Amino acid sequence: MLNKFPLWKNLLVLFVVLFGALYALPNLYGEDHAVQISATRGGEVTMDTVAQVERTLQSAGIQTRGLTYESGQILVRLESDDDQLAARELLVSELGQQFVVALNLAPATPSWLAAIGGEPLKLGLDLRGGVHFLMEVDMEEALSKMRDSMLDSVRDRLRENRVRYTGVNADGNNIVVNLRSAEDYQRALGELRNQFEGYETRTDSSNNSITLVMTDQFLQETRANAIDQNITILRNRVDELGVAEPLIQRQGQDRIVVELPGVQDTARAKEILGATATLEFRFVDTDNDLQDAIAGRVPFGSRLFNVRGGGQQLLENRVILTGDHIVNASVGYDESNRPQVNITLDSAGGRLMTQATRGNVGRPMATVFIEFLATGETTEDGRIAFERIEEVVSVATIQAVLGSNFRITGVGSIQDAQNLALLLRAGALIAPIQIVEERTVGPSLGAENVRAGMTAIMAGFILVLIFMGIYYRKFGLVANIALLTNLVLIVGVMSMIPGATLTMPGMAGILLTVGMAVDANVIIFERIREELLAGRSPQQAISRGYENAFSTIADANITTLITALILFAVGTGSIKGFAVTLAIGIVTSMFTAIVGTRAIVNLAWGRQKRLTKLSI
User: Fold this and answer.
1) What CATH number does domain 275-439 carry, 2.40.30.10, 3.30.1360.200, 3.30.43.10, 3.40.440.10?
2) Element (H, E) at 434
3) Taking residues 477-491, what's their average pLDDT?
4) Which parts pass through the membrane (predicted)?
5) Which of 487, 479, 444, 483 minimizes the C-alpha distance to 27?
6) For range 570-581, the mean pLDDT
């Protein structure tokens, strides 16, 4: 008998190996030290900025490897980390506060390889360097927003049913409703009792008052939901920043840990992550004089707001709609080629906007942008102090009944529009957050970790190669080729997976799969030896050795693969990194050990009709 694969199977093995090698190739080119220049609020990156950057670097004698301008940002590639640091300091002083100059590492992948999606493997925080944030959530603000929403809901329910009341006020986390008469008290009791989830009803008929008391369980759920929603929104914002495989998880009762691999300058990250931004839409008060309000005679039911860029505007207290209903926000340009933000609302928000504008066509409506910024101080009870900043970013006359899609104009520069759209698209934080701890892992420490990890992998790899070559002779060389191919395939597959990141635990997973891959070859080769000792011919021994070893290898690898999938499902951070490389390594090692080595053995010995001896 002869051992040989059909042509299509040999071609398939060759295609898989070459495909994996192609996408592993970008890792040989490494990364360039670079600085990235983007605009802050009030600034804009233009071609004049590009020319200014080029002049500044040339006058300082700093050599560049390239400069690109794309998506409103400038990326300058430099020769070394010393040039990178010098260029950053120079550009920070030259460009001023309107621009953020961030350290970066830009892939040096050739354009032809990048065109087909070839990218180097992304490294985690412990290998590449990056930043670690510990953030604290202001729970008092979250509860305050809950109370305000509850107050509006109670008032709306009483008005809809024409129940007269003298006041609906908050008392801590509870809502106190005072009614005008005993009749109103009885009607309100029927409307409010057991109508609001998480609130119990307490009555006082002697004073015609009803108190809605927040339950302890609902209070705990509200706190937990505030953390969970902030984690989800922070993850969305990190995705918008383009950071691969971030770590975002809860710590304790009111804190969140965020780790961003590869981010060396924290200005942009802190600006986006820490911003608590949302919108409110309000009608402009056209029934009262603005100048009288500015002079101090603000009418009941209205408020004065500052206008971005200067001036003030008198708006009604009633909020038409908040940013909680926004499901998408994108940047565009109006008829005058000025930046605008296109808003898409959910179905509930669309109905509210339609109801509010149906009878108010021709009235001006203002868009209020709200941010909570940490003051750096603490309150008397030790909590973080925040400053609420409200600005009118646009005032537009309602030309027609609005629905789920509309636009806001007058948002400033294109960078302002992009930042606003990003924050609204990612969602509004349910409560402000403060960065209470910040740590930076430098690239030099990351490089040391890479060297240590690669040393461990290569040492184990070389020792295995030497053992297999000596113990199994020519068949050992076949196993060594399979091990090298397995390593290339692991790197290639991880480079192709969007968001996959290599960490130190991931390196440990690769080292473990090296042992598992050679273990499969040992099982196969030992079965071939047993067949030869049983008197089989070399060709029969090869065939039966691979066939009989398959079930054993499959059982061992499938159980390990299941374990890796469970680790990935329930683990976080570094555990996920280990599970990913382990799972990929198991699949590629089974391919190289069972199919790859069989193809090589068949080509080397399988076609020899008078084979009498195997070098095993």
Assistant:
1) 3.30.1360.200
2) strand 433-441
3) 91
4) 452-472, 477-497, 509-528, 549-571, 577-601
5) 487
6) 79
